[in-house]
């Protein structure tokens, strides 16, 4: 927030808040304060933020989260300025500093204080001082040996002079809209975008790390499976040694045996462990073969499990790539938490109540309702909540993507190829194959689509399905199905 904009904001705040009372104080995060100001029958919210990129002060219509327990600075402010009266709001000179003058009655005395809001980028701070400018508390402290100390009991010195900004910060406003209202909308959008990108980047890291981990695991398992398959050859080696047992003696390095599996039979040389007896050499071969067989049995089960998990992570990666709002990121984060890939912050469980269902809704040309999942959780909802047995389920073949569903149940109208192709086109559009000109989509009656017990969100098994090749697209005029 540059000085020119701050001048306009402070002037409006002085007109709006002078004479008001600080009724409540909240600190939504480590850098943002919300002061509830009661004035002339109105309850206004004043936002003060020491955000590193978007420091600002303005009235806000937006609701911010309130932590269950107040943070340190918030608790102090509640004890000192709750019920204080605002005597004025002003900008100090042409600097990026706004000052709120406060007065609070303590017994027979009136205590004068000032809340100094330094909106200076990375060094932004919010400081409460007394009438003599002695620091009472601050959002951030700086030690005495620093360039400018900010500590309780130390007089607050002026900020070092900085270069004057030459360009005015451009805040889009509607006609007759206040500077505060314009700033609220403008900065809220900037902060939301930054938070969205930060959250998206954090989720990408989790998804990418797990994808790499699973790829390494799968490669190792495939290597182990190859070795186990090769180890089965020791059954044949053991049988060859058994057939040549009468020739074997301890200390021999090899023995000749006839391989009757070849046509015609061939004489082959079989290596021996010179330190072992004939019986021990034979037993060693069969033991290695049995061990390989056991390992192969485990690997034949484990490899598909890891492949399926990798497929799921790749579907989350696809969801992440297409995420354009916080709701989509919230779904992905919830899936990562439920899947054990991400630790849940705090002890609170993921809230289900009031959560918007991750479903897109379309209407076909012939009037059929077509539903499409926005995420793995939304795909689960299609199968578990919305699908009836005779409804038709769709998914792109061989690639991550959304599930789609034609609601057929209870309709007398016959389902046509046209509606099937429209639903398939929607499923193809919301898939990783979206950029292809032709995409194969499988479809089946919903009764033939099952979610295995313990399967990841959006993972199902399908039987008795058909296929159709379509061009990825949405119904004309359908928007994005919101």
Brief sketch in words of this structure:
Helix content is 35%, strand content 23%. It is α+β, with helices and mostly antiparallel strands and 482 residues long.
Topology diagram in text:
Blueprint (H helix, E strand, L loop, with lengths): L2 H15 L3 E9 L2 E8 L2 E8 L6 E4 L12 H10 L3 E7 L5 E10 L2 E10 L6 E6 L4 E4 L40 H53 L1 H11 L10 E6 L6 E6 L6 H45 L3 H13 L20 E5 L5 E5 L2 H11 L5 E5 L7 E3 L10 H13 L9 E7 L3 E2 L10 E2 L3 E5 L12
Helix pairs in contact: 3-5, 3-6, 4-5
Distance between the termini: 35 Å
CATH class of the domain at 3-170: Mainly Beta
Instruction: Going across the biggest sheet, name each strand in turn.
Output: 12-13-15-14-16-19
Provide the succession of SSEs. Answer: HEEEEHEEEEEHHEEHHEEHEEHEEEE
Low-confidence runs of at least 5 consecutive residues: 163-168, 347-354
Instruction: Please indicate the percent range of residues in DSSP E strands (runs of 2 or more).
Output: 15-25%
Q: Shape, please?
A: elongated
Q: Main sheet, how many strands, which sense, barrel?
A: 6 strands, antiparallel
How much is the average pLDDT? 89
The CATH superfamily of the domain at 3-170 is known as ibrinogen binding protein from staphylococcus aureus domain
Task: Write down the Rg.
Answer: 35 Å
Report the strand count: 19
Q: What is the number of helices?
A: 8
CATH fold field value of the domain at 3-170: ibrinogen binding protein from staphylococcus aureus fold
Range of helix content: 25-40%
**In CATH terms, what is the architecture of the domain at 3-170?**
Roll
Structural class: alpha+beta
């Amino acid at each position: 927030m540059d000085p020119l904009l701050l001048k306009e904001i402070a002037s409006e705040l002085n007109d709006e808040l002078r004479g008001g009372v600080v009724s409540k104080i909240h600190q939504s995060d480590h850098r943002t304060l919300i002061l509830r100001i009661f004035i002339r029958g109105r309850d206004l919210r004043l936002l003060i933020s020491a955000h590193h990129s978007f420091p600002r002060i303005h009235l806000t219509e937006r609701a911010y989260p309130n932590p269950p327990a107040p943070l340190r600075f918030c608790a102090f402010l509640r004890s000192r300025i709750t019920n204080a009266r605002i005597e004025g709001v002003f900008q100090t000179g042409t600097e990026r500093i706004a000052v709120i003058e406060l007065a609070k009655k303590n017994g027979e005395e009136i205590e004068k204080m000032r809340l100094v809001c330094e909106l200076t980028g990375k060094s932004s701070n919010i400081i409460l001082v007394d009438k003599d400018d002695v620091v009472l508390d601050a959002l951030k402290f700086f030690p005495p040996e620093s360039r400018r100390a900010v500590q309780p009991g130390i007089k607050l010195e002026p900020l070092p002079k900085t270069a004057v900004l030459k360009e005015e910060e451009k805040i889009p406003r509607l006609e007759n809209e206040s500077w505060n209202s314009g700033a609220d909308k403008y900065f809220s959008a900037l902060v939301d975008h930054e938070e969205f990108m930060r959250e998206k980047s954090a989720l990408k890291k989790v998804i990418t790390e797990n994808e790499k981990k699973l790829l390494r695991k799968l490669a190792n398992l495939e290597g182990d499976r190859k070795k186990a398959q090769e180890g089965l050859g020791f059954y044949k080696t053991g049988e060859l040694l058994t057939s040549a047992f009468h020739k074997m003696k301890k200390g021999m390095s090899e023995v000749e045996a006839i391989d009757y599996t070849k046509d015609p039979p061939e004489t082959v040389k079989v290596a021996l462990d010179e330190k072992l007896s004939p019986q021990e050499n034979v037993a060693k071969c069969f033991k290695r073969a049995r061990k390989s067989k056991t390992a192969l049995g485990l690997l034949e089960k484990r490899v598909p499990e890891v492949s399926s998990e990798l497929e799921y992570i790749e579907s989350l990666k696809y969801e992440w790539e297409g995420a354009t709002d916080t709701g989509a990121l919230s779904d992905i984060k919830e899936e990562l938490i439920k899947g054990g890939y991400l630790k849940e912050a705090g002890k609170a469980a993921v809230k289900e109540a009031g959560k918007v269902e991750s479903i897109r809704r379309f209407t076909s040309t012939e009037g059929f309702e077509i539903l499409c999942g926005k995420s793995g959780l939304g795909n689960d909802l299609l199968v578990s909540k919305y699908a009836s047995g005779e409804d038709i389920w769709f998914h792109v073949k061989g690639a991550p993507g959304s599930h789609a569903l034609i609601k057929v149940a209870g309709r007398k109208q016959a389902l046509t190829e046209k509606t099937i192709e429209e639903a398939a086109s929607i499923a193809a559009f919301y898939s990783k194959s979206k950029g292809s000109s032709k995409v194969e989509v499988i479809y089946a009656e919903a009764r033939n689509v099952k979610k295995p017990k313990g399967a990841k969100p959006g993972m199902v098994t399908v039987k008795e399905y058909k296929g159709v090749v379509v061009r990825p697209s949405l119904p004309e005029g359908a928007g994005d199905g919101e």
